[in-house]
Write a structure and sequence with these properties.
about 120 residues; 4-stranded mixed beta sheet; 2 helices; Asp23; Asp23/Gls24 family envelope stress response protein
């Protein structure tokens, strides 16, 4: 699945992995987000904290009739109000992707995989 755009100069194709990496980079800059987590929880319910080059493993991109749907799997910081951190992250990722890709983002779903003490 790719995001396709046509311009006067030709066609532009953006891969699903590129969209996922872009979304992963945006969400890690949000207040209260420690990092991206893998979609699969490890044994005993522990979430793996992903490095910069693996952000695509913590993001699912789906193309629907109404636009792109993004699923983000994150780890939040201890002591932060989770609902506020997630709401701000959703707004930032939706705005950033719509501005960057010029496509409609139908939904940004955030799944909190864990809470970490940062110190």
């Amino acid at each position: 699945m790719t995001v396709e755009k046509q311009t006067n100069y030709g066609n532009i194709s953006v891969s699903e992995e590129a969209v996922a990496s872009l979304a992963g980079g945006m969400i890690t800059e949000c207040y209260g987000v420690v990092g991206m987590a893998s979609r699969q929880l490890l044994r005993d319910g522990w979430a793996e904290l992903l490095k910069n080059e693996n952000y695509a493993k913590g993001v699912v991109v789906r193309k629907t009739e109404s636009g792109l749907e993004i699923d983000l799997y994150i780890i939040v910081s201890f002591g932060v109000k989770i609902s506020e951190a997630v709401r701000e992250a959703q707004k930032k990722v939706k705005y950033g992707l719509e501005k960057t890709l010029s496509v409609n983002i139908a939904a940004v779903n955030v799944f909190v995989q864990g809470v970490r003490v940062v110190g």
